[in-house]
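Schema walk-through. Below, the input block comes first and the output block second. Nothing else is stored per chain. Lengths vary across the set, and this one has 176 residues.
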Amino acid sequence: MTDWDISSSEENTSEWSESLPFAESIMPGFKIPLEINRGVQKLIIDYTLGAAIIGLIPVLVGKMDLFVLALINLKMVLDIWFRWGKPKEKRIQMIIVILLAFLGALATAFLARLIFSLIGLVIPLIIVLNGAVGHATLTWSFGRATNQFYLNSTQANSATLKRLLKVHQKYRKEEI
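--- output ---
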């Protein structure tokens, strides 16, 4: 276990509180966003697997898989927003970052599909995975960038911590 790992809560908290007298009061300010981040990362992996499965299905007619992929990504972004407690501050910045994250994820997915197409010239069976790789790369990149925006923009003030604590307790009850 590393010094910054918070998974064993009681031992680390007592070590911190002995070395720093104010650590016990600021510990939730660090712990709650990190636990929310961990839950959102699991959520992103679930959506990524769903997108990969959609990319593997060759039966979907025309561009129907892209429509389903768009719905999956929209639902994922909304779920990430809910998990972070629907922050109301920085709305315009949030929209710009999400659009830029989508463009970056689209470029990454295009490159992943291109690489798999080139590998498919040598190993023809890999072409079957081309759609799954593109869909999974797009969803994972988009989800990670969106989550990173919320994680980095979380301020350690009392209003933000109260909002995060309330949301964290709600989702923690659902997981148990």
